[in-house]
Amino acid sequence: MERLKSQRLMLGLASLGAMVLSYTLLSHSHLLRPEIVPPAREIAVAFSELVVGTRPPPPMEGDVHAGHQMHSSDHVGTLLQQGVTLQGSLAITAARVLFGLAAGVPLGILLGLLMGFSRRADDYLHPIYVLLRSVPPLALITYVMLWLGHSEAHRLIPIVYAVAATMVIPAYHGARDVLGTYVLAARSLGARRWLLIRKVLVPAAGPTVLAGLRYAVAIAWMTAVGSEMLMSENGMGNLIVGGGLWASRTQTKADPAVVIVGIVALATAGWAMDALAKAGTARLTRWVR
Amino acid sequence: MLPRNKKNNFFSGPGIRTRTARGLLSLGALAIVYGVAAEIGRGRLPDRIWLGTHYVENVQLLPPYGSLAEEAVFLLQSGILLSSIAVSAGRVLLGFMLGAAFGILLGIATGRATRAEYLADPWVTFFRFTPALALLPLYVLWFGYGEGTKILLVASSVAVVTLLGAHQGVRSVPRVYLDAASALGAGPGLAFRKIVLPAALPHIFASLRIGLGLAWVTIVVAELIDARMPSLGYLLTLAGGYPRVSTMVVGIATIGALVLAFDLFALSVHARATRWMRRTG
Amino acid sequence: MTGPAPRLDAVDVGYTYPGDTPTQALESVNLTVQDSEFVALLGPVGCGKTTLLRILAGFLRPTKGAVRCDGAEVDGPSPQRGYVLQEDAIFPWMTVRENVEFGLLARGMPPAARVEVSSELIRLIGLSRFADAHPKELSAGMAKMVEVARVLAIDPAILLLDEPFGALDAQTRARMQDELARLWERRRKTVLFVTHDAEEALYLADRIVVLSSRPGRVEADIPVELPRPRSLESRFSPAFSALKRRIWETLS
């Protein structure tokens, strides 16, 4: 078993290394245009430019590298002109994600618990819920825009909607599967409604709900990025698509280096948030058998 | 407010007819509320909307049922709706099958062989936390705006989910079954076919269902970004001179109906394939 | 030392479960089971009987001492040592018949032959009506019987049974005990049978090995000299009661 653990690290690194190596070989071999597979150096350049927020002054006439840097992008230029930085965009998207979670999670849990514990509420609300969750949240974004215009609310609504819809199911199942015996035992000990809810029902339904939370985080990121790609002039979604407004998306020529930087940044942020959620879940469910 | 639980027949309460009636009642109420709101809004809601760069006239924010019906009929008769459905649903299905096949095979492989898992780990983790939509600009750069890009995007999002599901399914086969099988003399091949795979099936089907929903979410956004006829995403856009809200609403309703239909189908397949499962709880 | 090697031989076996707080389940157990013997392993809950059985079956390596089967060191599970676990191990996605035939399938027996064997065994345990049903339609006791039939199908020389009748009601349990006894009369397998019920042990076994509570040690090795074949009458004979008293005294 210990042998396998050390192999884990080695194999993981080997696999990563193979990827980096093959990528570098591919980009240097000029088999594909540099517009498609940018060499690592360009990626690094794009990264630093986006982090710093400005680009270094153009090289002088006759500099042998001048030609190379020329093709590196309108994309970055457009972004930098708007004062965009990588960390700034990431922060904005993360803020939207967190807002979506803060609003959507309680909403979804409440609805799920309500339907799970009360058969009557379930009968009335379940069909409506099924209908609502069948519509992909981002499909609503154009319609909502008619009502709210290009505003922050308009971008956040799909995120809240998606998170809430996602959290209903684990809460619902968590509530439904709570063993009737726990409730009966508690009631025979004299527990009344609120005590019952706080000390028995909620903790018993807890683990399922927390498991759903991690999934909701992933959905929140996905919806936030999609929302930004479509309808926002800031945030990560906007960054990787090339800045500018929705109507002109297809005209903007995106720079692959920026896209790659953006994707890696998003993956890292997503991973970090998930790790946090995982740790939080583990702490709160230590009692689970 | 009593606990509901299959074992607690004492609390079983109202029968299936009352429950269906309640459901229909609330749906009906919703429909009525919308109709009323649309009527109220007819004169009162603004009909001139600012779209960031220009105004659009003649916008019905809450189209009454009459307009919706008219629009639906138009879309059907002109064939636009059906061709849009065919195109979008086709993309979803193709992408789904591609992604699911890849994800399940890889998930099983990494579930079985720990070494394979360790090799694949960095990639899986990376793709797991990358919102699939973020890959769209990359795919567009590599393959241009076309069918392939959209289908590949759908496949990417489905593959991640199904990979995790298959991996989890293979990994979480209860040890008792494996022990009993080896005590009965089953070799690894037989054990895999007859024990591991059936035991993993519930997980796999659950992830397939989630993947299908995700496929729709992905295709809608892809079609919104690259809005072209015929596609359901196009119906949702504000392309063209006047955004026709009724078109949008019909589009939204159609997508919702399709997602629901696909989901119900996935659910029934899941239920059939796991007929043998005991209902827990 | 002359004579054939014992079927099962545990020599100075000890087992400690690893983990944050290691628990010693067994401490220096010596146990020998000869061919065609029916030995009951009796002891209070948590005394390590299941652990010992798992070691003999080949699923655990003893942390101390050695275990041998037919003279050879035990090295993993084998269909020679039929094993019925305490937990629910019936395969829920297979029908009763498919479950019973599984070991035969592993052996490569053709379908027609398999059906013959499985039908006989399913009839023996009284579940012919459920032959093509899925386990979810069976009660816990019935499911456990299917597991026993499943093991009997491969006709092992040695049977390791871990409280197989624990979940059954008194009548069914008595009936299954009879079935097992009758089967043993016919086929004379070597059986090691774990139970916490002294009466069951007395009714079935030739010898009762009593384990103490954790860490498990052999408290006593009591031969059961009641006439065979055993019957309902045996349960009420004075010799039976005397042995029962002796066991109770040993356990307390």
Blueprint of the fold:
The complex is a heterotrimer of chains A (289), B (281) and C (252).
Chain A: H1 2-28, H2 40-52, H3 66-71, H4 74-81, H5 86-117, H6 119-134, H7 141-148, H8 152-176, H9 180-188, H10 193-231, H11 236-241, H12 256-284
Chain B: H1 16-44, E1 49-50, E2 55-56, H2 65-77, H3 80-112, H4 114-129, H5 136-143, H6 147-171, H7 175-183, H8 188-225, H9 232-236, H10 245-273
Chain C: E1 8-17, E2 23-33, E3 38-42, H1 49-57, E4 64-69, E5 72-73, E6 81-84, H2 96-107, H3 111-124, H4 140-153, E7 158-162, H5 170-187, E8 190-195, H6 198-204, E9 207-211, E10 218-223, H7 232-236, H8 238-251
Give me the Rg of chain C, rounded.
Answer: 18 Å
Q: Which spans of chain C of ≥5 residues are poorly predicted at pLDDT below 50?
A: none
Category from helices, strands and their pairing of chain C: alpha/beta
- State the fourth-level CATH superfamily of the largest domain in chain B: MetI-like
* CATH topological fold name of the largest domain in chain B: MetI-like fold
CA distance, first residue to last residue of chain B: 18 Å
Largest interface: A-B, 74 and 75 residues
Strand order of the largest sheet of chain C: 6-7-8-3-9-10
Question: Topology as H/E string of chain B?
Answer: HEEHHHHHHHHH
What is the name of the CATH superfamily of chain C? P-loop containing nucleotide triphosphate hydrolases
- Please state roughly what percent of the residues of chain C sit in beta strands, choosing from under 5%, 5-15%, 15-25%, 25-35%, 35-45% or over 45%: 15-25%
User: How many angstroms does the end-to-end distance of chain C come to?
Assistant: 36 Å
Instruction: Give the strand order, joined by hyphens, for the main sheet of chain B.
Output: 1-2
The whole-angstrom Rg of chain B is 24 Å
CATH topology of chain C: Rossmann fold
Tell me the CATH architecture of chain C: 3-Layer(aba) Sandwich
The tally of strands of chain B reads: 2
Q: What would you call the shape of chain B? A: globular
The top-level CATH class of the largest domain in chain B is Mainly Alpha
The strand count of chain C comes to: 10
